[in-house]
Amino acid sequence: MSSSVQGPIRLAHIITRFVYFLLILVWAVLFAIFLAQILFGLPETWSFSIDLPLKLDIAQPGVLSVGSEQYPVEISAVRGKVAMQDPPSFFIWMPALITLFCIVLAIFALWCFKGFMGHMVAGEFFHQRASLRLRQTAGWVVLAWFIQTTFTFWVAVWVQNHVSFNDVTVHTSFSWDLAWLAVALFLWIVSRILDHGRDLEDEQKLTI
Q1: Does the CA dihedral 125-181-177-101 come out positive or negative?
Q2: 79 CB-contact burial (10 Å; exposed 0-12 / middle 13-18 / buried 19+)
Q3: What does the alpha-carbon distance between residue 176 and residue 53 come to, in Å, rounded to a whole number?
Q4: Which end of the chain is less enclosed by CB atoms within 10 A, N or C?
């Protein structure tokens, strides 16, 4: 393998390993904080925000000033987030648990991808385990996306059914984030290309 190709591959492998160990450290710190909260309890006053794309239907009149002219305007819908003071305990523990679990899934995904990059550094582009590690990475990504999306959807439905304000109607404009699915699909396609390359390589060996 030429040095022009080997250099970027080694750099990508180093970055992957760095992010992998960094993510383990982040998980350990968050888990320690979570454990400390269980052992010593939550603060007496806890502020919590639900950062969702919330649509609020309101009717607030106003004035638009353009030069010396004024035009009546009205706010009919705005977007924002809900902030709670002393929320229910499950609103603290569930996001923490989901976050910790998704970080574990991300660690597994990076571990598989790190194994794939190890084969790339060794020049084993068509090794069977290289494509397998890539498919495993895609699988972990899909699982993390599914859990995070399901939880976000549940929170959105819960907020819409349980949170109410005077003269304001709350709607949750939930949208599916397909970016990670696209990443997983790309990894799976690359793994299939590597499998096909290995088949062609085996056929070439048999022909010789």
Answers
A1: negative
A2: exposed
A3: 12
A4: C
- Retrieve residue 17's tokens: 């390993």
The pLDDT tens digits of the residues spanning 77-90 come to 666 666 666 666 67
Task: Single out the residue of 47, 38, 145, 41 nearest to residue 87, CA to CA.
Answer: 47
| Nearest alpha-carbon partner for 109 in 119, 120, 117, 97 | 117
Q: How confident is the model at residue 41 (pLDDT cuts 50, 70, 90)?
A: low
Cβ–Cβ under 8 Å, residues 84 and 67: no
**How far apart are the C-alpha atoms of 82 and 77, rounded to whole Å?**
15
Report the alpha-carbon distance of residue 44 to residue 30 in Å, rounded. 20
HSE-CB for 138 with a 13 A CA cutoff: 18
Residues 6+ apart with CB under 8 A from 178: none
CA distances 62 to 68, 94, 151, Å, are 16, 40, 38
Residues 6+ apart with CB under 8 A from 143: 105
Q: Residue 170: which H helix or E strand, with range?
A: strand 169-172
